[in-house]
Design a protein that fits this description.
Length: 235
Amino acid sequence: MNLLCLETSSGLCSVALETRESALIRRDSETPQSHSNLINSMIEEVCEEGTIRLKDIDAIVVSAGPGSYTGLRIGASVASGIAYGLEKPLVAIPSLRAMCVGLLAQGTSMSGDTLLCPMIDARRMEVFTAVYNNLGQEVTAPSAMVVDQDSFKERLDKNRMIFFGSGAEKVAAVIQHENAVFHCQGFLSATHLLAPAKERIALEQFEDLAYWTPFYLKKHQTGAHRSKKSLFERK
């Protein structure tokens, strides 16, 4: 399949294309507040390098959140615009689930009772987080949590837990437990959407374009961002 993946939920703007020939092409940018300026040109670049026309894409995959409100709106706007305009299915992957895929891809050593706790920095001591088992399967649902020294104590008393992502660094200063392990890297890019997307495509779990919106978890507090038109809408 030709799968186009868009990751905009974090500070990294990432686009990946996997072609039917299994070629994987990726573009990343960590330039702050540049998602809306870069994403369309990044899509054009991966399609050109993969010698794929946009209309030949079989499905559009996008990170569903939680994460940056503005980033999620940009990704959702572009992905939905392409999917609607070309009548292609849209697949939305939870951002925290994709982070687990990224961590597991690093080959991090873990026992069967190890729990994964991806964390996306929110504000102050708040993070967007969830708990997954060592296979990347959800144990507790995503939530917005204010972390203190007693957070996850019951789980840490029984399990080794790996805290990782953009919220892990500030949590490391608060949670001090012998079973707590911290990796402050993000482990989130468009390529990490591919594996869970293929699972959903096999089950035909597509989003309804008339009703789908990103999983923001929290209301935006400064007003909505008006993103640029999608690549399809510009044509």
